[in-house]
Amino acid sequence: MCPDEWIARLDGADVAGDALDAARDPIEQALWDLAARVLVLDVDVILEYGFWTRDEREGFRRRAAELGAGSRVHYTAASERELVERLARRNADLPAATFRIDEERLREWFKLFEAPAAEELRPRAAPERS
Q1: What are the boundaries of each domain within the chain?
Q2: For the whole model, what pTM was predicted?
Q3: Is there a smaller number of Cβ atoms within 10 Å at the N or the C end of the chain?
């Protein structure tokens, strides 16, 4: 479940900056509500959110456990330089319904990101149901 796809569908791909940020929270909440309904049916869900911090990741893992679901974090490491280079290539040939992201904003996000520690990358089994 990718918030960007829904934001682009509802608000258009031209939304940017503060407007994009303001659109994200309600979309992510709606997607989580849907994900929660699916998880209780014992169906896997992939949330394609930023998950910038450990606290955010742990919060969603806790929510999943409360619904009786296990969880797994997938992470691919990339240096800031590599991300800037990828962004330049992406922006040069921006796919349809995709938001333009400027380099300055990417660098700000990079400073906020907390890479997952090894223990975070271990899958967590669904809690025992009573």
Answers
A1: 3-117
A2: 0.87
A3: C
